[in-house]
Design goal:
The protein is mainly α. Helix content is 56%, strand content 4%. It has a two-stranded antiparallel ribbon. It has a two-stranded antiparallel ribbon with strand order 2-3. The longest helix is centred in the middle third of the chain and has 29 residues. The chain is rod-shaped, with a radius of gyration of 53 Å. It starts with a helix and ends with a helix. The model has no long low-confidence stretch (mean pLDDT 81). It binds zinc ion. Zinc ion (ZN) binds next to loops.
Length: 193
């Protein structure tokens, strides 16, 4: 806590607290059981209404006043004191909260990072890698046995494999398969009803 914080605490808390206590204490006027001289507390019961000066100390009663026989509280002073004490205690609470907020370690301020578990991979066909093994070579008899739907499927598979093929030997073989399948498709379409 720096010096400015101490001054702040002193001004806002200690001064009102002490002033409030002083006001509450001074609001109490202890009665002595008799009307007393405001200067020397001499019993003025016999003097009241007869003289304006204290027979004991000679003070002008109109100046020093008479202390009433019963204790009284000066309401305005009392409530001012109570208000000051409440204010001081409020400042204590607010100041404490402020200090707690300002001095809280950073580690407790930052929210805890909760590790997010990896999303489970949805089931499904694994993506075909580019270097997937090419489809097995086709023979003329196999192609001749194919229906149009099979030929179309084989054509798509072969053309895909040709795009991904790097080995020239495989590319040549796939090109031959593709030609065979294309001829079969032409034949099927020519003979179709
Ligand atoms: Zn007196």
């Amino acid at each position: 806590m720096g010096a400015s914080m101490l001054v702040f605490a002193f001004v806002l808390v200690i001064v009102p607290l002490l002033a409030g206590l002083a006001l509450i204490l001074s609001s109490r006027r202890g009665g002595l059981g008799f009307p007393a001289c405001g200067s020397c507390h001499y019993n003025l019961t016999a003097t009241a209404g007869r003289s304006t000066t204290c027979p004991e100390c000679g003070a002008d009663i109109l100046q020093v006043g008479i202390i009433p026989p019963r204790g009284q509280r000066n309401g305005r002073l009392l409530w001012s004191g109570v208000g000051l004490i409440v204010l001081a205690l409020t400042c204590v609470g607010g100041g404490t909260a402020m200090i707690l907020i300002n001095h809280r370690p950073v580690t407790t301020v930052s929210p805890r990072v909760i590790p997010v578990p990896p999303m489970p991979q949805p089931p499904g066909p694994a993506p075909q890698p580019a270097d997937a093994p090419p489809p097995p070579p086709l023979t003329q008899s196999q192609v001749d046995a194919m229906a149009q739907a099979d030929v179309l499927a084989a054509l798509e598979q072969t053309s895909k494999a040709r795009r991904g093929a790097i080995d020239p030997e495989v590319q040549e073989r796939l090109r031959n398969d593709f030609t065979m399948l294309l001829n079969r498709l032409r034949l099927l379409r020519a003979t179709a009803p």
